[in-house]
Amino acid sequence: MAGIGSCRWSSLPSDLIHLISTKLPDLSDRARMRAVCKTWHSSVSLLDPSPCLPWLVPWNMREKEEILCYSLSSRKTYKIHCPQLRGACLQGMAGRFVLCYRRGPSKSLSLFNPLTGIEIPLPCPEDGCTFAVVSNPLQEDVVAVAGYTPNADEIWVALIRRGDQTWGRHNLDINYQEGVCVYCDGFYYVNQYNQYEMPTQIVDATTGEVVTTVPPPDTGSYLIAYQNILETSGQILLIYRHETTGKLEDIAFGIYRLDQVRGHYQWAEVRSIGDRMLFLDNFVGFTLKSTDFPGYRGNCIYFQLQDDLEHRKPLLCWHDLENGTTKAMPNFCGKWGTWIIPNF
User: How far from the centroid of its chain's Cα atoms is residue 174's Cα?
Assistant: First the structure.
């Protein structure tokens, strides 16, 4: 073994070094690998399209200029200096970007990449509204948002495609106070936020008309503490989170898939999501394949909990759908936030 030293490591073939780097689940690991030596630096690309595990970032930057990023792979929090985000709200992910909203006299809306500093301006809605991304977070060519304008008491949905100068916007003439919504292939799927089951409205994104109403799934006697609706692989999923005591061990999830049977839509219960890992935040959600990340299990949900009876602080949790157990992720910085997938 005396012949194996640093020179031997630096002499590894470039294609082998690159292959090893694609197996690292976190972009920060690839950056450290590039710092080993000149050979590794030239062989490892941060622009590689290999999948990365997401980071969780706080949604409200307030007056801070450093964004705190909690990495799932390292279980650590990293700081990225982003003076451009001072006072901004991060309203959800859109591909390589996060939707960035700045309030006040110089209000603005843009897609922003915190790693590169690249910013794409978007038309800004009127002042005083709150909104969030409701399109698939893994896509950036089409961005859809749902919002509420308090002074006008308006609930609305809006859509913009890359290159457009204006939003395609519609007010919703439906009961959608503090609801959840997702956009997919020309339609919005809207649920009201409530402790009990609520029907789903399917809205045409072009006309704003309600196409049909889908009856809620049967959850038995469970109360709904929180719900998400999302699109993954062309399917619409409705996720209910049930909490009976406020303790981690009593959290349960119900997952339902929107099916069309004999021309009618209905929710069908999903017992397992297979090799998928489901990531939920306060806005929407997305799935990744666990097989792309060695050492990680599928059929699980990563989600945030406002607080529980034991910790009394925001938690990032992992729920195993197979055995129904929930655990808090270690070293979480305790900031309520949204997911981003780090990418240059």
Answer: 26
pLDDT score at 311:
62
Residue 292 DSSP code: G
Give strand pairing partners of 230. 237
Cα→Cα distances 14→3, 101, 210, 252, 294, Å = 21, 42, 56, 47, 22
CA dihedral sign of residues 246, 247, 248, 251: negative
The encoded tokens of residue 99 equal 């939707």
Task: Write out pLDDT tens, residues 83-93.
Answer: 988 889 999 99
Largest Cα span, the chain: 75
How confident is the model at residue 2, as a pLDDT? 45
Tokens 């029907």 belong to 199
Please name the amino acid found at residue 114: P
CATH class, domain 51-340, is: mainly beta
**pTM of the shown model:** 0.86
Residue 109 CB coordination number (10 Å): 19
Residue 65 identity: E
List b or e across 198-220, with b for residues whose CB sees 16 or more CB atoms inside 10 angstroms: bebbbbebeebeeeeebebbebe
What residue type is assigned to position 164 of the chain? D
Q: How far apart are CA 227 and CA 243, in angstroms?
A: 12
- As a whole number of angstroms, the distance between CA 150 and CA 166 comes to 22
In 3D space, the residue among 194, 234, 233, 231 whose CA is nearest the CA of residue 216 turns out to be: 194
Tell me the mean pLDDT per 10 residues along the chain, length 344. Answer: 54 76 69 71 67 88 86 88 89 92 85 90 76 91 87 82 87 68 94 74 93 89 84 94 85 95 92 96 89 92 80 86 94 84 82
Q: Domain map of the chain by residue range?
A: 1-50, 51-340
* Cα-based distances in Å from 194 to 24, 29, 172, 341: 41, 42, 18, 30
